[in-house]
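User: Can you predict the 3D structure for this chain?
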Amino acid sequence: MKSIDQPAPLPLSDFLCFAIYSANLAFGKAYKPILDELGLTYPQYITIVALWEEDNQTVSGLGEKLFLESNTLTPMLKKLEAMGYLERRRDPEDERQVLISLTKSGRRLREKSLKMDLTEETALAPDEFAKLQKAVVTLRDNLVKAVQERE
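Assistant: Here is the predicted structure, written as structure tokens:
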């Protein structure tokens, strides 16, 4: 019986998913000193950024924007509320919804976080940076769509 040659498995470094995963870890390490100074984790920081962009959002809307489930988002929101950066309150028009809004302290974090730009550290030209960001967003959106179509 003749055996069929199997292609050699790809090395880990050739997996796109690993490249994205390890780049995410590298971003986390690059942001860590700045985030430590602010007393925030990266997920807490992007939550604050999403609220700078659009304050007074529902928990469900914020979760969709951040790609976070409520069982991950709610404890983080409670912690940010305890830190004095945001407040949660029931929507008077729909008691089932909880609205999230920044406090003055949460809005002031923007001034402290101006040095969060890692564009220089990426060593990418502005046009390369923009193309890569757009390509990663397209990749993410395609994957989300594929998963939704399977469900």
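The CA atoms of residues 47 and 53 lie 10 Å apart. The longest strand covers residues 94-102.
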